[in-house]
Predict the structure.
Amino acid sequence: MSVERLRAGYRDFAANEAAGRSPLYVELARGVAEDDELLAWLDRLPVGKRQPNLLFSAARVVGGELDGYEELRTLLSERRDDVEALLLARRTQTNEAARCATLLPLLAALPQPLALLEVGASAGLCLLPDRYAYEYDAGGATHRVGGGGPVLRCRVRGPAPLPASVPRVAWRAGLDLEPVDVADPEQVRWLEALVWPGEGDRLETLRAAIGVARQDPPRIVQGDLTTDLPALAAEAPRDATLVVFHTAVLAYVPREGRAAFRAAVQDVGATWIANEAPRVLGLDPASVPPSMFALARGGEPVAHTDSHGASLTWLA
C-alpha cells in the first residue's frame, strides 16, 4: 500500500467512520494523515497491520488513554518498538455484540432451531443472539424481544420483520484465526481497547456480553474460514438450520479467499448471512450510505446497518 493510499485511508476514517462517534479518533486519524514520517513507518508494516483502529488501540494499551494527537506522536517517538510489537501480535477483533440486533430479524425468520456457525468469531459474543434482550425503536414505537442481558438497542427504519421472540439455537460454534478467551484478562483488555474512546455505551455492552459468555462460553475453533469451514460445519446437527454468518470480517480476507469462502458456504448447504462493507460483498459502495454496512442473505442485500449495530434500515 502506498503512502498516499494510507493517507487517504486515515482521512476517510476521520471523516466517515470516527466522525460523530469519537472526537479523539477523528483528531488522531487527521494527525496521522498529515504526518509523512508516521505514514512511511506504517507503510513498512505488513498488510493488515496499518489500519487506524489497530494502531490507536495498540497505542492506548502501551501508553494508556491519550488526550490528543501530540500525545500519540510523543508515545510513538519514545515507545514505537513496543507499539509495533503489539501491532504485529494482535488483530482487529472487535467483538460487537450489538450487531446481533441487526442480525436478529433474519435469524428469527429461518426454520427453527438453528445451528449457528460464525466465521471471524473473535470471542464469540455474536454467537449468543438468544441470550440477549433487544429494544427496537421503530418510528417512536418500542419493540422489545427477549429477556436476557445486556439490552441491545437499535433504531429501525423501513418494513423490518421484527421478531416476536429470540431464535432457538440447537448448536453454535465459531471459527477464528486467533480465538479470544473471555476468561483471559489480557485478551479481554485487548477487546476493550478496540472500543473507541467516547463510546462508553459500547464498552458497557461489551463487558455485559462478556459476562454472559463467561457463564457458558461458545466453542471457538482456531482455523481459517477459507479452508476449515467444511469440517466444522459437518459437526452441526442435521435437524437444525445451518447458518454461516459474519460481521466486519471479509475486509481482512484477500479477494481470492473471499471467493473460496463463498464456494465453501454453498458446498455445505448453509444459509449465508453477511453484515459487511458493501465492496467486500461485491456491491456498489454508492448503493449504501457512507460508513454503513450491507446486511445480506445469500449475497442479496436486505438492509443497511450501522457498523456497530445501532441502526437498521430495511430495504423495501
In short: Residues 150 and 205 are 6 Å apart (CA to CA). The first helix runs from residue 3 to 18.
